[in-house]
Amino acid sequence: MSAKDPGSEPSLGMDPFEDTLRRLREAFGSGLTRLAEFRVAQLEGLSRFLRENRQLLLDTLAQDLHKSAFEADMAEFILCQNEVDLALRSLHTWMKDEPVATNLLTKLDSAFIRKEPFGLVLIIAPWNYPLNLTLVPLVGAIAAGNCVILKPSEVSKGTEKVLAEVLPQYLDQSCFAVVLGGPEETKQLLEHRFDHILFTGSPCVGKIVMAAAAKHLTPVTLELGGKNPCYVDDDCDPQTVANRVAWFRYFNAGQTCVAPDYVLCSPETRERLLPALQNAIARFYGDDPQRSPNLGRIISQKHFERLQGLLGCGRVAIGGQSDESERYIAPTVLVDVQETEPVMQEEIFGPILPLVSVRSLDEAIDFINRREKPLALYAFSNSTQVVQRVLAQTSSGGFCGNDGFMHMTLASLPFGGVGNSGMGRYHGKFSFDTFSNHRACLLSPSGLEILNEIRYPPYSNWSQQLIRWALDSQSCTLL
Amino acid sequence: MSKISDVVKRARAAYNTGLTRPLQFRIQQLEALRRMIQERRSDITEALAADLHKNEWTAYYEEVIYVLEEIEYTIKKLPEWAKDEPVEKTPETQQDESYIHSEPLGVVLIIGTWNYPFNLTIQPMVGAIAAGNAVVLKPSELSENMANLLATILPQYLDKDLYPVINGGVPETTEVLKERFDHIFYTGSTGVGKIVMMAAAKHLTPVTLELGGKSPCYVDKDCNLDVACRRIAWGKFMNSGQTCVAPDYILCDASIQHQIVEKLKKSLKEFYGEDAKKSRDYGRIINARHFQRVMGLIEGQKVAHGGTGDMASRYIAPTILTDVDPQSQVMQEEIFGPVMPIVCVRSLEEAIQFINQREKPLALYVFSNNNNVIKKMISETSSGGVTANDVIVHITVHSLPFGGVGNSGMGAYHGKKSFETFSHSRSCLVRSLLNDDAHKARYPPSPAKVRGGEWPPHSLTSAQGVLR
């Protein structure tokens, strides 16, 4: 890193990120973020950011996604605040060395796991919960003592602006920076070396992120997606199920990575669900959902058109209306869909719910297992056995029996995918652990060398006998 | 080449039958593995002798015993590890069941390496089996005898379809990496680690990479040099230096360099006699290419001890280099041979700076009587693991995860950590369908007074109390 002559011209094609990255690395090298006090101050800054800019953020979320204050509170503010509060309460505990048990010969030693920051962390956030999915990972990365580069989504423009212009004022900017840009800039950013990358987005881009990370052997946490199946058993109260499924499906106009993507049920149950879903939709959004302040809008023209296309799959049983001027799609239920149709091939990420008929629980499980492992999986039944069977015979990031993504509200449950839906996890303490290097430490005393005698060559018959004795009588390692 | 894809397909089909789900099955396979090790001990020793000049003692006590211990420990703990782990509930979920459920990932690929060809291939396999996966093994072709042996004996004891062995060189490894796995576990070099992760990225396959680097060994002026040098010599020259967690180089004050050399020499003589070549207990370099590479690192250096080698037997004498220039080749790559460079530094701070200017190593060692020195060294550096006042032994503790950071790797294993590495921790919440009224508050339309955003909204009764 050569010193720059203040009067010199920047070189052609200079990388816009290099200076920022170098600055943050130097700050990390100074040891500033190691201190608990520093991390606490940053977390308190985040807390103030949320409180002091509440109205501004509500407005931007409304602008970006037509998010109601109610939804914004539930799925953005409160979750972020809880994470900050939990980190502030628990930081000192989380930072402590974790002592571990040792075998007999090492009893005299002190063995522990030391949690250390990785260094420079990159968080690439999506547009659907632009506050939550940016700040919750940020809490973990900061708590763990890293310097952080945040790359918010350029698609949720309002929030991007607030994160770029307002958030840095609440944090120490020597250790934190927001970078902006679209796919091209992100690709360029990914050429640089980071010490951990957390990416939330599609599996397709997840592969690109992991391949870029591979060049630098950077560990990654990938929060991806898929089609989250929702099995509805015959043994259930259809209205209760419909309330729960509808609410979690149409929340944020369906733009939720853990939303129930499609329903699997028998034809009989389908007939019971349809009127119940109709009721639920009317109850939540009124007779004209387009006028409801509680229903979101589609983020962009591109996604709107994609979803409009999906409305042509199968047959519309409920809803099906759309309005391009508002990027509005009505809460919709589709039936008679074919597996080969687009609505069953891609993650819907919109307010459209296909009901797929299966003749039995076995068929439902087969259907699920023929596909990529989803981020979430739901099973509704009065019978515990049915719920347990679905759980036991499938795999997914997370699972909820008899509700939608409630499991996300427990900080004690890790949030992450498996297979195509992702790798790694975070939330609560899992965030702290994800953004830390777990360093295995053993402090051996200098004395008592006599115990080590038997491990040194030359290895004679005598030492072999002695070792056999030592091992037989305590089954512990020699060394 | 289609044979490889058939083998993987068969493993997946076998996995999909659900055969590996019951703990009993997994334990039976682990017991069979244990029987294999006990019954075929002499075959295993012979292969290690042929590949690396190990003898009965070094084969057993430096490799095999750890695998046996891992199997014992795993069989004992598996029922506990496999249990659902209940987690703390929120006020809203008090009536529900919330827990983390461990599941197998599916088909795991384990790529072994040649320096501890039995241990580094089979020990990870123990965890993968325990977690309920099918396991495809690809032993290193450099330790040819072990590769052939494993291909012969594993199918005689374990389920042939679930745990196949694929042998071959670079072409076969490349081929196998094209297949889709649910986890890839690789032990080896940083360079190949990148290739493995790149291949894994195509399928979004999570990886555990046990790589390497230059593990520094700082020797403080205030320490018991006799003991320190003995331990360092033991860890460095075992397996002729071909150990990923061997102390790679020494950092010390110039005033103690000479003493360190003398004491290392003394220990070497105790261990291997006047002529290490004649010692039964001293290893050989794995092949000609590595022999030449390591001999090349000695060129131009100040040799305080050793420095000679014999190409025909791939023997390199235990070698100590002094006043080594940090820019020289021997300080640019992981030595992986019986050559110990000593680099002089003037203080602990300089040593720390020296270490931090380089890639994060797999292991770090510090010898001192002064706890403050140890504390400072640990706090101001980073590495996969640390042993203070000894070398290597941190990796023998079951409850300490074994893995690297940065260029030395990602992920970890050993003991329970292996089980976790090869499992998916699935977050589960199970609620009841009764009483939907309790959830009324969460459904829209939202009450008028919340719209417009007072903070916190009064209709929400607790911090977590949103989704009632």
Automatic annotation (TrEMBL), chain B:
It is found in: Cytoplasm. It catalyses: octanal + NAD(+) + H2O = octanoate + NADH + 2 H(+); an aldehyde + NAD(+) + H2O = a carboxylate + NADH + 2 H(+). The keyword NAD applies. Residues 459-468 have a biased composition (Polar residues). Transmembrane segments: none annotated. GO terms for biological process: aldehyde metabolic process; lipid metabolic process. The keyword Oxidoreductase applies. PROSITE patterns: ALDEHYDE_DEHYDR_CYS, ALDEHYDE_DEHYDR_GLU. InterPro entries: Ald_DH/histidinol_DH (IPR016161), Ald_DH_C (IPR016163), Ald_DH_CS_CYS (IPR016160), Ald_DH_CS_GLU (IPR029510), Ald_DH_N (IPR016162), Aldehyde_DH_dom (IPR015590), Aldehyde_DH_NAD(P) (IPR012394). Residues 3-426 form the Aldehyde dehydrogenase domain. GO terms for cellular component: cytoplasm. CDD domains: ALDH_F3AB (cd07132). Coiled coil: none annotated. GO terms for molecular function: 3-chloroallyl aldehyde dehydrogenase activity; aldehyde dehydrogenase (NAD+) activity. Keywords: Cytoplasm, Lipid metabolism, NAD, NADP, Oxidoreductase. Residues 440-468 are annotated as: Disordered. The active site is at residues 210, 244. Homodimer. ALDHs play a major role in the detoxification of alcohol-derived acetaldehyde. They are involved in the metabolism of corticosteroids, biogenic amines, neurotransmitters, and lipid peroxidation. Oxidizes medium and long chain aldehydes into non-toxic fatty acids. Preferentially oxidizes aromatic aldehyde substrates. Comprises about 50 percent of corneal epithelial soluble proteins. May play a role in preventing corneal damage caused by ultraviolet light. Belongs to the aldehyde dehydrogenase family. This is Aldehyde dehydrogenase. It comes from Sciurus vulgaris (Eurasian red squirrel).
